[in-house]
Design a protein that fits this description.
The protein is an alpha/beta fold and 261 residues long. It is built from 9 helices and 8 strands. The protein has an 8-stranded parallel beta sheet with strand order 1-2-3-4-5-6-7-8.
């Protein structure tokens, strides 16, 4: 079994875990998980993330409002997020960014919400989890407006050249189990372009289950599939890849070593 795994992007605040959330979370350390970062997408899920982090010693929280709900990001919402961001074990603002694939919010509202939450991350001195779907140029441009912030581009889907530019600016990329799907050429090129020292791993559960479980509800145990695929690409032992990506996550999110189970 692979040990010392960190799932840097999960959604246990999702309703698909309502019936068995606690039972599932209780099993994660038995499957080699040493930490999970639970990302949020609106105010209710942000509150749930903070509560889960308080309940489980290996769970950490990110708070933020997804671009789908950009129009809800007003002064009152930002105040709530700022209060949540100051709670123990909140390690990031996110996931925030731009989504031009579904376009569920007007793009000007998405841009305004993104910038406002980047400002929040600056005030709270927290790193940022970026959602970027079919909006690579605009997302990168807004990130460049905040050169003092460190960001991770979750479920990275950009080009290898964009990945190099992000890494040169001090950011990270995170890969999900979609790299186990057929023909993951872009992710492969991006991974090799930046090297393991700039990569984190995630499940984005309950979404993005690996090829062997595609279409099923995902969970953090399947982050091992991401590590295994990276190990094949880099021709390294699986445990070594787990240790490198987990060390990257601990540095980025300031997750203490003493919390490792």
């Amino acid at each position: 079994m692979v040990k010392n795994l960190i799932d840097t992007h999960a959604h246990y605040n999702n309703e698909r875990y309502t019936e068995d959330r606690d039972a599932l979370l209780a099993t994660l350390p038995q499957h080699g998980l040493s930490a999970v970062v639970n990302a949020s997408y609106d105010l209710p899920s942000s509150h749930t993330s903070v509560a889960l982090a308080a309940q489980w010693p290996f769970v950490y929280a990110a708070v933020g409002i997804h671009p789908h709900d950009a129009e809800t990001v007003d002064a009152a919402a930002l105040l709530q997020l700022e209060k949540l961001a100051k709670q123990p074990k909140v390690v990031a603002i996110g996931e925030i960014g731009l989504d031009y694939f579904r376009d569920l919010s007007p793009r000007d509202a998405q841009h305004a919400a993104f910038r406002a939450q980047m400002e929040l991350a600056r005030r709270c001195r927290l790193p940022v989890i970026i959602h970027d779907r079919d909006a690579h140029e605009d997302t990168a441009a807004i990130v460049r407006e905040f050169p003092d912030l460190r960001c991770v581009f979750h479920c990275y889907a950009g080009s290898a050249e964009m990945a190099r530019q992000l890494i040169s600016a001090g950011h990270m990329i995170s890969l999900t189990a979609n790299i186990t799907y057929p023909k993951p050429k872009r992710a492969y090129e991006s991974a090799l372009a930046v090297g393991l020292e700039h990569i984190m791993v995630e499940t984005d559960c309950p979404y993005m289950a690996p090829q062997t479980h595609r279409g099923q509800r995902n969970d953090s145990t399947h982050v091992a599939a991401v590590v295994t695929q990276l190990a094949q690409w880099f021709d390294l032992p699986v445990q070594q890849v787990a240790d490198i990506t987990s060390a990257n996550a601990r540095r980025f999110f300031h997750i203490p070593e003493e919390q490792k189970l």
